[in-house]
Amino acid sequence: ILPDFIANSIKAARKSIIIESPYFVPNTQLLSALLGRAKDGVDVRILVPNKLNDSKLDRLASQSFYQKVLDAGVKIFEYQPTVNHTKFMTIDGQWSIIGSPNLNTRSRRLDEEVAFGILDSTLGTQHQQIFENDLTHAIEIKSDEWHKRSIFKKALEWSAKIFDKQI
Fold first, then answer.
1. Hey, which of 3, 5, 72, 115 would disulfide with 38, CB 3.0 to 4.6 Å?
2. What whole-number distance in Å separates Cα of residue 22 and Cα of residue 87?
3. Which of 73, 43, 51, 61 shows the shortest CA–CA distance to 143?
């Protein structure tokens, strides 16, 4: 139910989607929803941690999706100063999803997660302000630079994605 809730929320976006998550390992449904909205001109921005995180495997698996989402027009940022374990999504500045779910395989298959959808423009505005502030401490991943990473790095990402699916 949770993946449907998140994907359907994303599909409803008309202007913007902001996601701040410690992990970004989307399933096919979530990835399709994000790519579709980005290709339709919705401003989709995702903020994830840099190397300072609690799961190197999830980070590599997450990075295996970067090129595909960047090519669709999604903007990806990596938070720099410290670990960032913030979890929220806000759509069109109105609809926010907050709670314990991560955007990874473990949360979809193993963990018992709780998420709330809240329709409130005040909360949406607060999330946008938090997101914008956090972006001042982040670097944007650029498609042309990302594409130049080594074959070894690409192999590690691919392996991590395959291993992550085994959970």
1. 72
2. 7
3. 73
